[in-house]
């Protein structure tokens, strides 16, 4: 064996996900567009917006969950963790999680940094401290911002998960064209890693710019591809961690899957799947 790469469910080589912040009322219009094209979105919600009567309501958030979307936390007051002392950052994250979990009757482990997030550090804050307390608070991943690029890589640090691009990036459609043109199975053997296209933003920006047609254009271009998994942020995280949990023999000829889902992978150009609880001979 030379190279081994994760494959998404059903052996798919690509994934698409969306992440939208602040829980504005226009999220509902956005949700309808995503549903039309079969997209999945992670909506990042402040506990204040969900309970003050001005944002998407708890009942409407439950409707989004029922449609297959994810609700993640965005802080109690939309404060940037890089501006807060650790004790205040902990309260900002924990209070949002506690309220949303209580109101939605579910476990919420996804997070998107609010405001400048981890882009600036003041008041004694440091990324290492933030990463440490997010882990202690059982936050699984944290989406950051900036750093748009067309490499379509999976994250190497789940607490600094950088998206592909904001939807206002003037190169967004060029990025999509490049993403669609990639045939992962035909790439050089050492470059057959799975590709991820991750778009983020705020739904109110489509209102402010009067360009909702851009969202339709983006979704229409990405939709309906046989090699692509349309997933929420947490679905991608959970699947990736399940893949990492596989137990391999020293010679890589035997693999055991301790997770609860079927996992797919590629070895030297050949596709395999291993079911939950199965030991597979390669």
For the structure shown, list the relevant keywords.
alpha/beta, three-stranded antiparallel beta sheet, globular, 9 helices, single chain, 33% helix, 282 residues, six-stranded parallel beta sheet
Characterization of the model:
- The protein has helices spanning 27-37, 47-51, 58-66, 86-104, 127-136, 172-181, 204-209, 212-222, 233-244, and strands at 4-7, 14-21, 41-45, 70-73, 110-112, 141-143, 165-166, 195-201, 228-230, 247-248, 254-256, 263-267, 270-274, 279-281.
- The N and C termini lie close together (10 Å).
- The chain is built from nine helices and 14 strands.
- Helix content is 33%, strand content 20%.
- Strands 2, 3, 4, 7, 8 and 9 form a six-stranded parallel beta sheet that branches. Strands 1-12-13 form a three-stranded antiparallel beta sheet. Strands 10-11-14 form a three-stranded antiparallel beta sheet, with no helix packed on it.
Write a compact overview of the structure shown.
Helices cover 33% and strands 20% of the residues. It is an alpha/beta fold. α5 links the parallel β5 and β6.
Helix proportion range: 25-40%
How widely separated are the two ends? 10 Å
Structural class: alpha/beta
Oligomer: single chain
